[in-house]
Design brief:
The complex is a heterodimer of chains A (395) and B (442). Chain A is α/β, with parallel strands linked by helices and 395 residues long. Chain B has a four-stranded parallel sheet, sandwiched between helices. A four-stranded parallel sheet of chain B has the order 10-9-11-12, sandwiched between helices. The chains are: A alpha/beta (395), B alpha/beta (442). The structure holds iron/sulfur cluster (2 copies).
Chain lengths: 395, 442
C-alpha cells in the first residue's frame, strides 16, 4: 500500500478496510506470513492483550472477533447450547473450517467465563497451536496486581520468545511500545475527529478503520489511519440533523456493520463507543524508557479503559467513565447495545443506567447477535430515541 | 448412630417407605442451618456483623477470625429455589431491569432484596457490613457484588483468584493472593469488625476444617462400592451443605461429618444403597457421573426420575464447586494464608476445561460408572460453556455413553419435566444396549 500522504479518496480507503473486514480467510495475514519464511501469527480475542509483546517477537498479532453475519456456522453450533452468545461458536467455526490454520498461537484474554472456557477448548481441539489464557489483575496496586501482571507478561514474553526461537529483548519491546503508542494516538485522533464532526467520519467507516487494525501489521495500519484522517478531514460531507449518542456494551461480540449503519440512518450520530477496545485500551502513551514490562503494567493499572470485565474498586467511580464520555463528546444520549446472553454487558447495564439516570442522560437498550439480520426494530427504536432527544432539547 | 423417622404424608407415592428417614446427620444439619439463620436474622439485636461472600472461594476460617457471620447469597438462592419462591424473585428482578439472559442466582438474590429480603426463617436478613468478593471460578461474582454494593453501599473487598488456565498453580499466583490477603483483605476485615487478626486463631480453624474434609472425602469415596451407599449428586448436595457454607472450620462441621461418615459406613457394611426422599433406593441398576449443578425448583421430581429407574450418581462435579478435596488437598494450618490461596485456586470452576474433563474421566473409571450425564444450566456460563465438548471428550476417552439435559438452577421456567424424563429414559436404554453389546461380544 501507499506510504506517502498522497491525497486519496475516502471511499478508496474505506473500500480497502471493507475488503479486509469481509475476508473471512484472513488473506492479508496469510500473505504477510508467507512473504518471509519463519514468520508467525498470533491470534487474540477480545478484550485486551498487550500486542506489543507479539510484535516484539516479530509476529503478527491478529484480532479474532468472531465470524460476523457472513460466516455460515456449520460446525460451531454443535459446540454450544442455544443460550450461549454467538462469538465462541463462530470462532470455533473459523478454527474447524481451517480458516485459522495458519495461526501459530491464540490468546484468550480474561473477559468472561465463555472465553475463559474457550481457551481450554482450543487447547484440546488444536493441540499443535500455542494457546494461552491471558490473565490480568483485578487489583490495581503496583506492588500487588502489578507484580502479578508483570509475571504474566514475563511468562507470555518467554513463551513467545520460545515460539520464535529467540528471546525477546528489552529494546525490541521498547520499539514495539513506541510503534503502538503511535497507533493509539492515531486512533484517539480518529475518535476525536468523529466526536467533533461525526458527519465527516461516519461510525461505520470509523469502525472499519479500527477493525483493520486487528488484521494488518500495525505500521501499515497507522499509515492507513493517517490517510483516512487526511481524507476524511478534506472531504466535505453534508451534516444531517442527527442527535449524538454514545454506544456501549459492544466490547466483545461484534454487531453487524449494518447495525452501526442503521443507527446513523435512523438519526443517531455515534460519537463514542466501546467497540474493539484493544486498540485504545491504554488511554495514554506507554512510557518507553525503563523496564518495558513495568511500563506496560503501569499503563494497564492506571491508564486503561473501564469496562464490564474490570472491577471498579470505588463505588463512586462506578459508571462515571460513561458520564465522562458523554460530556467529552457532547453526546445527548446513550445506546446500550449488548450481545444476547452476554453476562458481563447485561449485568453491568442496570448499574450504568442508574448512573445515567442520576446524571439526567437519556438512554435506550437493545440486544443483538453478530448475525442479526433484521434491522427494522432497531432502526425504529433508535429513530424514536433520536426524535425524543430532539424534542427534549428543543423544549 | 441415631435414626429418627419423620412421617410425611406427601412422600407416600413410593412403596414401601411412607416416611422420610432423617438420620442423625440430617437432623444435625437442620439444626445447624436453623441456628445459622437465627444468628443472621438476629444480628441487629446481638450487634453481630455480617460478611457476605460466595461458596467457591469461601474463606470461612478467615471470616470467623473476625467474629463475622457468613452470609452466602448462593445458599439463599438455593433455599429460595427449594422453597419455590425463587421464580417470583427472578421475575421481580427482571421487572426492575435485569435481563432475562443473565445468571438466575443473581436475579433471585436481587428479587429477594426487592421483596423485603426475607430469610427462610421468615425474618429479615440483615444488611451486610462487608461484601467479601472472593473472586474465583466465575466472572458473574464480580457483577453480582457490584450490584449489591450499589444497594448496600457497604465496604467491598476484592480478592482476585487467577484462573488455572494452564492447569497449574504457579508461585506468582500464590504470591499475588497471599499479598492480597495480607495487605488488603485482612486489614479491611479488621477495620470493619473491630477485631484484631490472630493467625493462631486462623490455624485452629484450619485444623478443624481439615478434619471435616477427611470425613467428607471418606463419604464421597464410599460411592466406589457396589452398590453405592450414597447418591453423590442429589444426596451429595446435602452432604456438602455445611462445609461449602458457613460451617467449615467449626466444631459443628466436625460433628456433622463424623455422624455422616458413621452412617454411610454403616450402610456400606450392610450393603445398602442410598436413602432417597421416598426411603431406601431399590436395586442399583445404573451408576452415573453427573456434571453441572442441579435444578432446585423441581429438585425432588428431578431426583425421582433417577431413583425410580435405579440410577445412582456415584460422583459429581457440583459437589466440588466449593472445594476439591478428593485429590488430596486439605486446608493446612502450617501455611495458613498459602493454604487459603490454594483452596481458592483449586475450586472446580476455577480449573481449566481439560482439568475438568480429566476429573470426570477419572470419576468414570474410578467409580466404575456407566457413563456421564450433563445437566446444563441455562444461565450459568461458568459451568455450561464448553460442556458439549466435554461430553464428547469424556465419551471418547472412556468409551462410555454420555447424555445431555438442560434446565436452570432456580428459574422454574426452564425445567421441562417431560423433556428431561424422555432424555433420561433413552439414555438408560442406551446404557442397556451398550451392556448387552458388551456381553454379546464377550
Ligand atoms: S459476548 Fe459477552 S458472554 Fe459472549 S464471549 Fe463475549 S463477553 Fe463473553
Ligand atoms: S454464573 Fe454460575 S457459577 Fe456464576 S454465580 Fe451464576 S450460577 Fe454461580
Amino acid at each position: 500500500m501507499a506510504t506517502s500522504l498522497n491525497p486519496q479518496a475516502t471511499a478508496d480507503i474505506v473500500a480497502r478496510a471493507n475488503a479486509l473486514f469481509e475476508d473471512l480467510s484472513f488473506g492479508t495475514a496469510r500473505a504477510w506470513k508467507e512473504a518471509v519464511p519463519g514468520r508467525k501469527v498470533v491470534g487474540y480475542m477480545p478484550i485486551y492483550v498487550p500486542r506489543e509483546l507479539i510484535h516484539a517477537a516479530d509476529m503478527l498479532p491478529l484480532g479474532i472477533v468472531g465470524g460476523g453475519d457472513q460466516l455460515e456456522v456449520i460446525h460451531g453450533d454443535a459446540y454450544y447450547q442455544s443460550y450461549i452468545c454467538r462469538i465462541p461458536r463462530s470462532t470455533i467455526e473459523l478454527g474447524v473450517s481451517g480458516r485459522l490454520d495458519f495461526v501459530d498461537g491464540m490468546l484468550f484474554p480474561s473477559i468472561c467465563d465463555v472465553i475463559r472456557n474457550l481457551s481450554g477448548m482450543w487447547k484440546l481441539m488444536f493441540p499443535k497451536v500455542y494457546s494461552r489464557y491471558f490473565d490480568v489483575p483485578q487489583n490495581y496496586r503496583d506492588d500487588i496486581g502489578g507484580n502479578f501482571y508483570i509475571n504474566e507478561l514475563a511468562e507470555l514474553r518467554h513463551d513467545l520468545g520460545e515460539l520464535r526461537g529467540k528471546p525477546i529483548t528489552d529494546d525490541e519491546l521498547r520499539s514495539s511500545i513506541a510503534v503502538y503508542n503511535d497507533n493509539r494516538r492515531l486512533i484517539r485522533e480518529l475518535y476525536a475527529l468523529r466526536a467533533e464532526r461525526p458527519w465527516q467520519a461516519p461510525a461505520a467507516e470509523v469502525y472499519l478503520m479500527v477493525r483493520a487494525g486487528l488484521l494488518l501489521p500495525v505500521e501499515e495500519h497507522s499509515a492507513l489511519l493517517r490517510h483516512y484522517l487526511a481524507a476524511a478531514r478534506a472531504e466535505e460531507r453534508p451534516m444531517r440533523d442527527n442527535c449524538r449518542v454514545v454506544l456501549t456494551g459492544m466490547f466483545c461480540e461484534q454487531p453487524p456493520l449494518n447495525l452501526i449503519k442503521s443507527l446513523e440512518l435512523s438519526g443517531c450520530y455515534v460519537v463514542d463507543d466501546d467497540l474493539l477496545l484493544v486498540t485504545r485500551w491504554l488511554t495514554g502513551d506507554v512510557e518507553i524508557e525503563g523496564d518495558p514490562l513495568r511500563n506496560l503494567s503501569s499503563a494497564f493499572l492506571h491508564h486503561s479503559e473501564s469496562t464490564a470485565a474490570k472491577y471498579e474498586p470505588n463505588q463512586k467511580e462506578k459508571g462515571q467513565h460513561l458520564v465522562r464520555a458523554v460530556k467529552r463528546t457532547a453526546a445527548e444520549g446513550v445506546i446500550f447495545a449488548a450481545p444476547s446472553f452476554c453476562d458481563p454487558a447485561l449485568l453491568e447495564r442496570p448499574m450504568l443506567q442508574h448512573v445515567l439516570k442520576e446524571a439526567g442522560i437519556p438512554y435506550i437498550a437493545f440486544k443483538y447477535a453478530e448475525n442479526s439480520g433484521q434491522m427494522q426494530p432497531i432502526r425504529e427504536q433508535a429513530g424514536t430515541f433520536a426524535d425524543s432527544i430532539k424534542l427534549w432539547s428543543a423544549a | 448412630m441415631t435414626t429418627v423417622k419423620v412421617a410425611t404424608p406427601k412422600a407416600a407415592a413410593r412403596a414401601p417407605a411412607k416416611e422420610v428417614i432423617k438420620d442423625a446427620s440430617m437432623l444435625k444439619q437442620k439444626e445447624m442451618m436453623a441456628a445459622h439463620y437465627d444468628r443472621l436474622t438476629s444480628a441487629p439485636e446481638t450487634g453481630a456483623k455480617v460478611a457476605a461472600t460466595f461458596v467457591p472461594g469461601n474463606l470461612n476460617e478467615l471470616v470467623m477470625c473476625f467474629d463475622l457471620l457468613n452470609n452466602l447469597p448462593e445458599v439463599n438462592a438455593i433455599q429460595n429455589g427449594l422453597r419455590r419462591v425463587s421464580g417470583s424473585y427472578v421475575l421481580e428482578a427482571e421487572k426492575i431491569g435485569h435481563s432475562e439472559d443473565v445468571c438466575t442466582y443473581v436475579k433471585s438474590d436481587i428479587g429477594m432484596m426487592a421483596k423485603g429480603n426475607i430469610a427462610p426463617n421468615g425474618k429479615k436478613f440483615p444488611n451486610p457490613d462487608v461484601l467479601l468478593l472472593s473472586y474465583t471460578g466465575c466472572f458473574t461474582f464480580m457483577k453480582w457484588f457490584e450490584l449489591l454494593r450499589e444497594q448496600y453501599k457497604c465496604e467491598t473487598i476484592m480478592l482476585h483468584t487467577p484462573y488455572m488456565g494452564d492447569g497449574k498453580i504457579t508461585k506468582g499466583m500464590i504470591d499475588y493472593m497471599v499479598k492480597q490477603l495480607r495487605e488488603e483483605v485482612i486489614p479491611t476485615l479488621e477495620r470493619v469488625s473491630g477485631v484484631k487478626f490472630d493467625i493462631d486463631r486462623l490455624r485452629e480453624n484450619l485444623k478443624r476444617s481439615s478434619k471435616a474434609e477427611d470425613d467428607l472425602v471418606r463419604v464421597l469415596q464410599s460411592a466406589k462400592a457396589k452398590p453405592s451407599p450414597i447418591d453423590a449428586y442429589f444426596g451429595g448436595i446435602y452432604y456438602i451443605g455445611p462445609i461449602f457454607g458457613a460451617f467449615r472450620g467449626t466444631q459443628d462441621a466436625i460433628d456433622y461429618y463424623r455422624f455422616l461418615r458413621e452412617e454411610v459406613e454403616d450402610r456400606l457394611a450392610k450393603g445398602q444403597g442410598p436413602v432417597t426422599p421416598d426411603g431406601d433406593m431399590g436395586k442399583e441398576k445404573y451408576r452415573l457421573v453427573v456434571e453441572g449443578p442441579p435444578n432446585y425448583t423441581s429438585f425432588r421430581q428431578f431426583w425421582k426420575m433417577f431413583y425410580d429407574e435405579g440410577a445412582v450418581v456415584v460422583a459429581s462435579s457440583y459437589t466440588k464447586v466449593g472445594g476439591v478435596y478428593d485429590f488430596g488437598f486439605r486446608h493446612d494450618p502450617s501455611k495458613p494464608l498459602e493454604t487459603l490461596a490454594e483452596y481458592c485456586l483449586g475450586v472446580y470452576t476455577n480449573r481449566s476445561l481439560p482439568m475438568r474433563i480429566d476429573m470426570l474421566v477419572n470419576y468414570i473409571n474410578e467409580y466404575e460408572a456407566d457413563g456421564l450425564l450433563i445437566n446444563s444450566i441455562k444461565s450459568c456460563n461458568s459451568f455450561s460453556a464448553g460442556q458439549l465438548l466435554m461430553m464428547r471428550e469424556v465419551e471418547k476417552r472412556t468409551g462410555k455413553p454420555a447424555a445431555f439435559v438442560e434446565s436452570d438452577l432456580v428459574d422454574p421456567r426452564y425445567f421441562s419435566a417431560a423433556n428431561i424424563k424422555n432424555r433420561l429414559e433413552s439414555y438408560f436404554q442406551m446404557i442397556d444396549q451398550k451392556r448387552s453389546g458388551a456381553n454379546a461380544a464377550a
